[in-house]
Amino acid sequence: MSLDLADPLAAFRLDGQVAAVTGGASGIGRAVCQAFAKVGAKVAVLDRDGEGAAGVARAIAGAEAHALDVTDEAAVDAVFAAIVRAHGRIDVLVNSAGIAVREAAVELSLKDFERVMAVNVTGSFLCARAAARHMLPRHSGSIVNLASMLGFSGGLFPNPVYATSKGAVVNMTRTLALEWAAAGVRVNAVGPTYIRTSLTQALIDRPEVRARIEEATPMHKIGEPEDVVGAILYLASPAASLVTGHTLVVDGGFLAR
């Protein structure tokens, strides 16, 4: 779909498309589910917190919920197959599931390192692979990964495993985009700044930490989940039909310094 200059906003709609969102029970994922439904998508809310996912789905007309641990290969394949059985297709995947462990490198346990990598990197890969297996035969689809500005920066606070995982997501986005581009499946990512979610609330609640983040951000702003939704919608939608392999940073100018 090319941009129709007579009605350019139409290219940002997802009417009739089936969109799966991991980490959909809270934070950015929940905001994406709500926004996608407003622009016409049939939304599948995926989250390890099955009850939370069901609560989000109940508030969205026509949405469905699936409990899903993104690190479980068999469960990922089964959930995506169930979505396709129910709807005959999957058009959009947003990989929003993610965790963080903030420990300095010398204190970070191997168990915590592997746990973060398993969710943020392996989980994103497993879901992207499962979605692509259904998208590729149709020569159509859009995958949006949640990276981070910390995929490009060491950040302000010791957080080596999270930054490492998000750097991996940035380059995984590139390599999958190249592999699937000729088949019409686009793969992009967004790289948010510090966004007010359960992952960052403990940081933001500390006045001295909040002040440091705001000082390092040219726009002097702590982000909200809704601040990231527009970038995700753009990359998921036909408006970005010629965009693939790109990470769109939503950072209030942090990386421009």
Task: Write a concise synopsis of the structure shown.
This protein is α/β, with parallel strands linked by helices.
Set down the secondary structure blueprint.
Blueprint: E1 18-22, H1 27-38, E2 42-47, H2 50-58, E3 64-67, H3 73-87, E4 92-95, H4 110-135, E5 141-146, H5 160-180, E6 185-192, H6 201-204, H7 207-216, H8 225-236, E7 247-250
Parallel strand pairs: 1-2, 1-4, 2-3, 4-5, 5-6, 6-7
Helix pairs in contact: 1-8, 3-4, 4-5
Summarize this structure as a short list of keywords or feature phrases.
alpha/beta, Rossmann fold, seven-stranded parallel beta sheet, 8 helices, 7 strands, 42% helix, 14% strand, globular
Question: How would you sum up this structure, described in words?
Answer:
Helix content is 42%, strand content 14%. The chain is of the alpha/beta class. The protein has one domain (8-250): Rossmann fold (3-Layer(aba) Sandwich). A 7-stranded parallel beta sheet has the order 3-2-1-4-5-6-7, sandwiched between helices. Helix 3 packs parallel to helix 4 and helix 4 (110-135) runs parallel beside helix 5. The longest helix is centred in the middle third of the chain and has 26 residues, at 110-135. The chain is globular, with a radius of gyration of 18 Å. The model has no long low-confidence stretch (mean pLDDT 96).
